[in-house]
Model the fold of this input.
Amino acid sequence: MKYILVTGGVISGVGKGVIASSFGTILKCCNIPVTSIKIDPYINIDAGTFSPFEHGEVYVLDDGGEVDLDLGNYERFLDVTLHRDNNITTGKIYQHVISKERRGDFLGQTVQVVPHITDAIQEWVERVAHQPVSSDGTMPQVCIVELGGTIGDIEGMPFVEAFRQFQFRVKKENFCCAHVSLVPQIDGVNVV
Done:
């Protein structure tokens, strides 16, 4: 499995979703099966309670998952059927880790962001990346992960750290990062 992480800088709506979808479309045109994951670094469990003024419309998947609209773009661009687990939120990750802690899975350990939250993020991505999403059940070969928000936002830091570790988990040759940023262009002004 190969992984492409798409991050963004300067502003949140810089076009990460379009870039991620475009990467997937190019790969699919080369007959490489693709899946996608969207990470929303917010404490909400799903996009059903996001502010539509900040995040746009909610997209509802076939399994009833209320997710970010980017997953709808992924489905249309890539002709795949995604599932609620293809959308990761901070709330889902913390809920998962806290449930494990309450069951006693971490007895004798102090549960912390590193390693427990970062490990949960990596395990979630690996598990979902290996789930077929095409109509013929083909196993994906590439997983495109979009990290929502902006690099530098405190909400996204556990995810950034998780992917810093992830490159070693899956080997560097199976992981690449694409960073999308705003590059302002001032027309009519000569800069020397």
Q: What stands out?
A: The first strand starts at residue 2 and ends at 8. The CA atoms of residues 9 and 181 lie 5 Å apart.
